[in-house]
Amino acid sequence: MRKRVRPTEHSDGENVSSSFRMQKKTTVCQEKKGLASKFWFWVKSGAFALCAIFIMMPILEELPEIIRQRVYYHRIRAPFVFDLSHPAELELNHTINMYLEPEEGISLGIWHTVPDDKWKEAQGKDSAWYHRSLKDGSPVIIYLHGRTQTRAAKHRIGVVNVLSSIGCHVLSMDYRGFGDSTGKPTEEVLTKDAVWLHRWAKENSGGSRVLIWGHSLGSGVATNTAVRLMEQGVLVDAVILEGSFKNVQMYWPQNPFDRYSSKIKRLILRDEVANDVIFPNDENVKKMRSPLLFLHSEDDHLTTLRNAEQMYQAALSVQGDKRVRMVTFEGFLGYLHMGLYKDPRLPAIIKNFVVTTEEMS
Ligand SMILES: *[C@@H]1O[C@H](CO)[C@@H](O)[C@H](O)[C@H]1NC(C)=O
């Protein structure tokens, strides 16, 4: 569009050379101007692209999740979605998928993984074998997951494998509305489901110890469950809280970008769990009388270490250092909010906690 001033266009007669010189100067100047506007064009485009990426990122990040959730909400089976009924295909070859009904019309998808020294024996076995094996005296751990995805998420399978490797049964549940479970999630029904599963595990394991592991939002379900059971006169054998938060208001990330992106996510994804929920971990840990283990990565970017430490201190002052412990993982390891299952020290840490809390009860 922009016209270039050519020296020849304006050279008329006498002062050709001086005019030429002058014009040449102008040309250089114009070219500079051209370069400058090009420069600004790219700066503006770049800034625009950055803005677009900034706005889109939280959405793009969740895209596979949106697809998965929509698919499961509408009960459509699609080939690109994990088949939750075949855990063996997800590196869990000693696991059976089952559906339990905590109340009429509600079906919860649950995996039962046996201790991994039984993995060979478990091959090709049916639900009756798994059901019998739950009574073998090994501790049972109920795994309560965080607020997105399903029991098939990689870091959840990672934890299940660690717990199985130290000789525990694991019951990994998708709450209502998650995965292939029916119903709609609310704080009340998530807690109800976990309380129900705890009772089921006690009854069907012949009274084995039943521990509860809660990760992230699941830590809120875990402490709610422990408090609810206490009100019913039942003391949970032990509780492990991984990446826990004080309550849902504090759960929302502290740094501006994360706060912004979770706001957008909530807006767009209509996160059903995030509205009208409290999950008061900070209050619950003061009421609880079960042995407690806090696990937290120093570099956790979603639930801060500081909040977990404050809850640990609060629980410690109620129950003492024999019953309440905390293990943190160095920030340079890069575990963030869900990677601590990778730590080679974890099996020994959990085994030690399971054994010492057994001596207490
Ligand atoms: C089955 O799982 C166990 C426990 O995780 C593992 O040690 C074993 O190698 C697996 N076997 C096969 C054939 O994948």
UniProtKB/TrEMBL annotation:
The keyword Transmembrane helix applies. Keywords: Membrane, Transmembrane, Transmembrane helix. Signal peptide: none annotated. One of its GO terms (molecular function) is phosphatidylcholine lysophospholipase activity. GO terms for biological process: monoacylglycerol catabolic process; phosphatidylserine catabolic process. This is Si:ch211-117n7.7. The chain crosses the membrane at residues 39-60. InterPro entries: AB_hydrolase_1, AB_hydrolase_fold. Residues 139-244 form the AB hydrolase-1 domain. The keyword S-adenosyl-L-methionine does not apply. The gene is LOC115560141. It comes from Gadus morhua.
